[in-house]
Amino acid sequence: MLSPHLLHIMPLIGHGKPPNSFPSITKTQNRVTKSVLNQDFSTNQSAAASAPPIASMAKVIHLPAITTNGAEVIEVVERAVARAVEGAAVDKSTKVPVKCVITVKRIIRSDNESNADHEDPNNHEMVAGRLHLTLYSTELDCSGMEKTVEASTERGTRRGEAVEFECSFNMPKTFGQVGAVTMQNQQEDETLLVSTIALDGLPSPTTTTSLTFNCNSHISPMSQNHDLRIFFSNKSYLPAQTPDGLKRLRNLDLENLRGDGTGERKESDRIYDYDVYNDLADPDSNPDLARPVLGGSKHPYPRRCRTGRGPTKADKNTEKKSGALAKYYVPRDEQFSATKSREFRLNVLDQAVHALIPIFVSITNPKMGFPFFTAIDSLFNEGLIIPSNGLLNKYLPRVVKATSFGKEKLRYETPELITRDRFSWLTDKEFARQTLAGLNPYTIQLVKEWPLTSKLDPKLYGPPESAITKELVEKEIGGVMTVEEVVEKKRLFMLDYHDLLLPQVIGVRNLGDTYLYGSRTLFFLRDNGTLQPIAIELTRPPSYDEKLAIEPWQGVYTPSTEPTKEWLWRFAKLNVIVHDSAYHQLIAHWLRTHCVAEPFIIAANRQLSAMHPIYRLLHPYFGYTMEINAYARKQLVNAGGIIESCFSAGKYAMVFSSIVYDQVWRFDMEALPADLIRRGLAEEDPNAEHGLKLAIQDYPFANDGLILWDAIKEWVSDYVDHYYPKAFTIEEDKELQAWWNEVRTVGHGDKKDEKWWPVLNTQENLIQTLSTIIWVNSGHHAAVNFGQYDYAGYFPNRPSIARTKMPDEDPTDDEYTEFLTKPESAMLQCLPSQRQASIVMTILDVLSTHSADEEYIADKMEASWEDSPVIKGRSSGSKGG
Ligand SMILES: [Fe+2]
């Protein structure tokens, strides 16, 4: 049997210099190939006029099926040669010149330098650039062969940021519609970001004389990547509808994207594959940075993109780090777009972290808190003079201001929350409001049962009964009704971090300098529709550990005007917000959007052709997720990284994330309506707006989110109904089924046996599945991402860590006296240190910033949608398009 690689090289053989690493072919095959190679195959426009037609015909030979012996190869080639000879007799008037312009947004040097110097729009200099292109007809010829024409560029013209390369094809009038282009980048060391390939002068009877391929894809030099780069036209096809002329290319492209699962990935690769989270630890540099592998039966977790780096010396199950400044691999097209690289958010973040953290380390004691609240204010007013390296202002112009003496000043923008009302963060009203409209609107839930009871093992975690009593609740709501009535009338709500956090408490406390509790916070829904916090319960489980042997402890706190109780209430709220901050970053943000999305993206690229309509529907929502995730593994959620060093869960942060994935995460509950119903914040009501009756009418996250959800679902419904008019076409779509199967059994393989996974067998199921993925990657993520600096930029409003325990938890006499006399000072000691606060504020400032090339829903029509009149009409008429 021939090597499958021969299928790759057959379209290339006309160039006379196949890449060095192509596999050797057998003696018989070699003879056949040489007979073809002896022809003059240069078909760029300058040579095409003198080249015999046999040349271009011979170059397009490919094997329609895997052949079994050399004789068959000979037969195939002989048939092609016969057709070529026949073609030579055809009058030249049967062909027309087709002009081709390839627009490359930017050429990226291998040293990653920007071409900013060449971005003058009046700069039209000529640049060298050899690209070889082959156009493929959607039809096969009468012998069942692919119909192709080829041409090459020699140089291009720079037009500001873009470069345009031109060539011309000598195309038979009977060529039919162009369905694909393959391109070889024959530059020595330049990767190109191909924006469009525009054809003009196409012969009749094609429907149009011009055609544009919207590529927006990188193509590496052949010296770095031998895979044939294939670009399909904007027309979408289900697998069964693939034109005969494109079938081989459709499969070949997917094979290339899947790779063979071996080797270390290079920057130029496009391969999408899976691996467990085994690259967070760094045991070679420090045994304390060893961490468990996430993914597998012990610590279930979604899969991440495989990079193929080797194992560490200390632990063969842990993947070693790349260099400090080296990026982790993501497929080439998942990297940030290459325009003005110095403005990339992720590059900024990377540079900022590398530059700023050593400065913070040099100027602050790791445990030093802020001495006064006014010292916190000064971060926004006067700022902090820092040792200058002259670069920070360039990376972080919003945060770091250059000074006149070559020094730089770290001065943060005042978050809007503080601009509006400097003291609002202290109020119960704002505390409650932020559970509905703040940075994490995803935890508040209806209390459905009374009394509150833990489901944890009492032998390990203490008494299951909550310390919040019926009497306490009734007193706090002024005795207007019994607690049973409050529950029945759906007016009692809760932030419940009891059962999830309690098992982590002892481990976290053993780390030192960070304290944790299990917590419950109750809210009463008042007649005016707002929430009123009425009680907080903080719980410490028992520990029989030699290092920390303690009895169980519970504290219950309520609002008060009595000074000591009022301060304790403030401390209790601070602790709950710390719990909410950890849950927000690790679960609502990282796990439920970034992390769970990666398998959907990997599987889509491995199983859905770029010409598949569902790939094209989802693709806009996948942008940059994989690269941001790779960065997060390197700097944010890694051992000793920013999350571990600045948030309360410390080194248990990611294990906690795995526990929540295992116990709580369900795909079918990630749709906004399902999530609201699960938390008791809504119930189905066909007569209500959006089909849901909200438990709290003024719930901005739900009020706005449901409008967006409905728009997404309406658009997806139109789209799915157009491509799948009958349910059986969904079941028969091999690529779609392979994608979903791989999502469930590989990417989310630790949950593959769950019964709640939707089955893609009806339009309804497919619409719900796709809408959920789109929602998670758009509305859900935006809600928990873009408000980060607004709410947490002033960190007392949203501290990431509690560094001291509650003042009344087993205090010494001196400790309690200190609290009574200087409660404000005690709170500053509890809040994040200067170093922790500065690092988190800087990171959140960058992460909250909208990047220049961000796309907004309904803002941009995908090229493939525009080419379909039906879809174009529906998308432009849909709020969610
Ligand atoms: Fe994010």
Characteristics of this structure?
five-stranded antiparallel sheet; 15% strand; binds fe (ii) ion; six-stranded antiparallel sheet; disordered C terminus; Lipoxygenase-1; 31 helices; 881 residues; alpha+beta; disordered N terminus
Overview of the molecule:
The structure is a single chain. The chain is of the alpha+beta class and 881 residues long. Among the domains are: 4-86, no CATH class; 93-258, Lipoxygenase-1, CATH 2.60.60.20. It is built from 31 helices and 24 strands. The strands form seven sheets. A six-stranded antiparallel β-sheet has the order 2-5-6-1-8-9, with no helix packed on it. Strands 16-17-18-19-22 form a five-stranded antiparallel β-sheet, sandwiched between helices. It is globular and about 100 Å long. 45% of the residues are buried. Residues 589, 594, 781, 785 line the site of fe (ii) ion. Keywords: Dioxygenase, Fatty acid biosynthesis, Fatty acid metabolism, Iron, Lipid biosynthesis, Lipid metabolism, Metal-binding, Oxidoreductase, Oxylipin biosynthesis. Belongs to the lipoxygenase family.
